[in-house]
């Protein structure tokens, strides 16, 4: 009896996260998917067909048959969307690389800091989250604009004569993304580096590596799980980022988040914007899932190899 | 004078005044902030020696080893290797290799790659690396495990990989930090002999750090007993055991009975008188009234019903207080009239005993004139 109860509780406990995913991810996704297969209409809601359960099964059946992949065909046909996707991927890639370059030395320094100091350093990394994301992005406008803090500093130092145009360029987007997503890169890197056995580095030195060689042959390969986790955490949201390119980027900056926003709010074309969102999801989630399955398979093969 | 210990050592460069030390610590001090880990220590180690640094935790033995490897720099003093000063030479340019206590195997590399690590770093040609790795795998009997990752090995196998990796570069000196610490008792005993054979075959100098006195006694040519950053005694295991130079060493290594007494003067010569009525002639003249102790190992005390006879044999009356039976031997705890309890061990050389001793029995404990050693400090 006791055992039966505990089995039931265990199922219930597992049910909670699955229920969460079902209600807040899978069902909304299915709704978006279904809208993406509708046609735009001047109506409320602004698409057809609408499933009306009151008119019986036959009506639903005919509504289902009206769904089509036309919007996806439309997306493929217009170079605007392809360019927006590519440009988003590129901007996210550059930003992720820059974030990694800045975050790695930070995480390394944190992991090598005295144990008593580490909690404070971790605290400092997550401290910016205590201020609104939007305010922090706005603050960057003040720093980067032609008469902003950064240009005034450079002018007063005599480094430049004319103010640099940074705001409303891709550079401003890179700076914004790097700044906002830095903690997401630092923390997984820190946790990977912090748990590393220091004697491994010593062993590498003992076997003839200079400190730099020891880093590349031992420390870096062992921190790869942290690097991958950090890159995914930055890259994925950066691809769909809307606020940063909207506030810091220029009018010609093409990013998919913005395109989606324009379709949705400007054109009121829910079906096309839904299709854009679904393609974005497939573009990001499918490669990651493939990567993870491959990794799990490699691990299993290794374990069974013994 | 009889020789100490029961086996003859043909290898004894430390006794040769012309022999040049291979490793020399010269007045080495190492401080970490206020803490002095190694205190003005001087020590010589010779080629092909199996040398043990023995002591409790925090005695400075590991710091000494890490300074030899180059991970720590002495605060003052100098370390010489083969006639050359090691000061300022980073670990990656020292002809020494270390086997770490945690083994420090690279988890992302196979056994083979771990062993080849140092060789690849030196830019050795690929074919030679493969040859050397195969040779090392054979040496530690792990040929079948070359492709495995460290986490797929048992503790004993990991220990062997660590050993093979540290030997692969053919270092002049191998440093071993608690090499057998993580192994269980049985495996540890087997591995001790393998290490000794390996050291002898390869003709290398081994410096091993250990807190396990039995391990140090079994494996090493000489032992340095350390405490609080200083070397208390450096000698062969037999000398350390049979002729400790201080109470600390006598008590640290093995079991010992300390029979306390005071120096008295008799016919112009110093003798030691104990509370139990034993008097022993002292080898040197000491101030009258000074407290000294006679250290007698339990196996040198004999328990008997009859008063023992023989020239110079010291005998005391006592009562059997406790008996500890270990199978191979029995330890009698004997209470002397003074209230002191001494331990006397005897080997159970026969299966049956005619008339065994019992609890509370009045007996004699005795020892030969040369069995005790007088300790001042």
From TrEMBL, chain A:
Record's keyword annotation contains Chloroplast: no
Membrane topology reported for the UniProt record: Multi-pass membrane protein
Species whose genome carries this gene: Xaviernesmea rhizosphaerae
One biological process term in Gene Ontology: transmembrane transport
Classification of source organism: Bacteria, Pseudomonadati, Pseudomonadota, Alphaproteobacteria, Hyphomicrobiales
Alphabetical list of InterPro entries matching this protein: MetI-like, MetI-like_sf
Protein's recorded name: Putrescine/spermidine ABC transporter permease
Keyword check for Transport: yes
Annotated ABC transmembrane type-1 domain residues: 85-291
TrEMBL record, chain B:
PROSITE patterns according to UniProt: ABC_TRANSPORTER_1, ABC_TRANSPORTER_2
Top-level taxon: Bacteria
Pfam families in UniProt: ABC_tran, TOBE_2
GO molecular function annotation: ABC-type putrescine transporter activity; ATP binding; ATP hydrolysis activity
Reactions catalysed according to its record: ATP + H2O + polyamine-[polyamine-binding protein]Side 1 = ADP + phosphate + polyamineSide 2 + [polyamine-binding protein]Side 1
Purpose: Part of the ABC transporter complex PotABCD involved in spermidine/putrescine import. Responsible for energy coupling to the transport system.
Descriptive protein name: Spermidine/putrescine import ATP-binding protein PotA
């Amino acid at each position: 009896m006791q055992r039966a109860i505990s089995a039931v509780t265990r199922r219930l406990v597992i049910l909670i996260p699955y229920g969460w995913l079902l209600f807040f991810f899978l069902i909304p996704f299915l709704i978006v998917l279904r809208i993406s297969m509708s046609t735009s209409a001047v109506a409320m809601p602004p698409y057809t067909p609408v499933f009306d359960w009151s008119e019986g099964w036959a009506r639903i059946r005919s509504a289902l048959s009206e769904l089509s992949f036309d919007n996806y065909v439309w997306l493929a046909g217009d170079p605007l969307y392809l360019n927006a996707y590519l440009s988003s991927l590129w901007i996210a890639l550059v930003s992720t690389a820059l974030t990694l370059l800045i975050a790695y030395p930070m995480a390394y320094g944190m992991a090598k800091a005295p144990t008593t100091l580490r909690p404070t350093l971790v605290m400092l990394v997550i401290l910016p989250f205590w201020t609104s994301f939007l305010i922090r992005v706005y603050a960057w406008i003040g720093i980067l604009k032609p008469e902003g803090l950064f240009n005034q500093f450079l002018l007063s130092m005599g480094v430049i004569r004319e103010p640099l145009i940074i705001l409303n360029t891709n550079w401003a987007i890179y700076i914004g993304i790097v700044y906002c997503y830095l903690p997401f890169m630092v923390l997984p890197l820190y946790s990977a580096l912090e748990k590393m056995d220091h004697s491994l580095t010593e062993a590498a030195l003992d076997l003839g590596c200079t400190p730099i060689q020891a880093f590349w042959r031992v420390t870096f390969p062992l921190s790869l799980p942290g690097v991958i986790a950090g890159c995914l955490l930055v890259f994925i949201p950066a691809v769909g980022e809307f606020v940063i390119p909207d506030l810091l980027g220029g009018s010609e900056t093409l990013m998919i988040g913005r395109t989606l926003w324009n379709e949705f709010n400007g054109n009121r074309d829910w079906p096309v914007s839904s299709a854009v969102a679904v393609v974005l999801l497939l573009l990001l989630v499918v490669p990651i899932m493939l990567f993870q399955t491959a990794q799990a398979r490699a691990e299993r093969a290794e374990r069974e190899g013994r | 004078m009889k020789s100490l210990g029961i086996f003859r050592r043909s290898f004894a460069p430390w006794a040769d005044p012309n022999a040049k030390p291979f490793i020399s610590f010269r007045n080495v001090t190492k401080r970490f902030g206020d803490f002095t880990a190694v205190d003005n220590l001087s020590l010589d180690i010779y080629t092909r020696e199996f040398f043990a640094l023995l002591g409790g935790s925090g005695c400075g033995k590991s710091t000494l080893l890490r300074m030899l490897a180059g991970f720590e720099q002495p605060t003052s003093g100098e370390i010489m290797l083969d006639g050359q000063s090691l000061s300022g030479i980073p670990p990656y340019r020292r002809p020494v290799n270390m086997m770490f206590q945690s083994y420090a195997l690279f988890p992302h590399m196979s056994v083979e790659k771990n062993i080849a690590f140092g060789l690849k770093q030196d830019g050795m040609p690929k074919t030679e690396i493969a040859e050397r790795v195969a040779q090392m795998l054979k040496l530690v009997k792990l040929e079948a495990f070359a492709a495995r990752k460290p986490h797929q090995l048992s503790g004993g196998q990991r220990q062997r990989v660590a050993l093979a990796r540290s030997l692969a570069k053919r270092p002049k000196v191998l440093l071993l930090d608690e090499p057998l610490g993580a192994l269980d008792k049985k495996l540890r005993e087997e591995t001790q002999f393998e290490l000794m054979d390996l050291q002898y075959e390869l003709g290398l100098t081994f410096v091993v750090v250990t807190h396990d006195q039995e391990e140090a006694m079994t494996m090493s040519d000489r032992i340095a007993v350390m405490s609080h950053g200083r070397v208390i005694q450096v000698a062969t295991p037999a000398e350390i055991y049979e002729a400790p130079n201080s109470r600390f060493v006598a008590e640290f290594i093995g079991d010992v009975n300390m029979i306390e007494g005071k120096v008295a003067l008799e016919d112009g010569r110093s003798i030691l008188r104990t509370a139990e009525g034993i008097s022993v002639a002292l080898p040197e003249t000491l101030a009258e009234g000074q407290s000294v102790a006679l250290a007698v190992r339990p196996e040198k005390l004999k328990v008997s019903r009859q008063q023992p006879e023989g020239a110079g044999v010291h005998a005391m009356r006592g009562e059997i207080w406790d008996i500890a039976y270990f199978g191979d031997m029995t330890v009698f705890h004997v209470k002397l009239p003074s209230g002191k309890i001494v331990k006397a061990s005897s080997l159970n050389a026969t299966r049956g005993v005619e008339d065994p001793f019992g609890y509370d029995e009045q007996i004699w404990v005795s020892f030969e004139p040369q069995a005790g050693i007088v300790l001042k400090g």
